[in-house]
């Protein structure tokens, strides 16, 4: 969710800056991949125009609904990094603009040419837009947002005939709240635990078992039990021969990082995509992501931080790929444990689907 406020500038016949007016916007968005996002929202407030000779300005109101495609610039070149301090982005989109309350321009009707561009009531126009912005991290859930945008509309937007389109420029600031992404369960470094498997045991009594009561002896002949035909099929054999249903065992993939880094590299995306695919095909499974660091490099505190960020980066990538956060368990070991022999292999986050 994104809330913005700022200023707009309607391009007209006066000097730039003389037609500034207030603007606001409210947006909802969804990040489909580390690079691509989609945003829908509504913005607007006030726009201005002017007639010249002498110059006299007028204002009117508008609202504009938009759908934008956003591209995260840093994720294109250096991989996905959820803790990045500054995240610049580009966007482009389309919308519908509805202008209204044009009474001030109507009061100056005698100074407008009779070309049919002066509108009354409301004015609905298609719009295109593009711009650039950046998010400045405050917390994992909140970012301060700066954005500039340009909107181009039909020539009747400002009630005057001019070039092919009218332009409404904007400079906005606000906050972006990541309310749709939940974190996986995070566990600090700890010794590995093995889940206890319940085992049924026979109860042993210190007292001897009582002797069974003797059956009374009868003189009657013992009943004859008919034996089954030799060629009768065995039910137990049939059950034994039946094919067992396939049981998902376990899948393990490694995601390696550069020394001192926790950004994902393109070379590791294939393993992550495989983990996401297996997890989606087996919705009953859980995904355990454990981060590690090379104990031969850096302090213990730094290594613990690196291992945690590596595990969280992988977990967030899986979430953006459609794996529910409730199914992801995040662990980190710092440099206290080394899953492999070489230092480079220990700069890793290990994903286990089970």
From TrEMBL:
Cross-referenced Gene3D superfamilies: 2.40.160.20, OmpA-like domain (3.30.1330.60)
Cellular component terms (Gene Ontology): membrane
Region Disordered: start-end pairs: 191-243
Domain (OmpA-like) ranges: 244-354
Biased composition (Low complexity): 191-237
InterPro entries from the UniProt entry: Bact_OuterMem_StrucFunc, OMP/PagP_B-barrel, OmpA-like, OmpA-like_sf
Keyword annotations of the record: Membrane
Protein name as it appears in the record: OmpA family protein
Lineage: Bacteria, Pseudomonadati, Bacteroidota, Bacteroidia, Bacteroidales
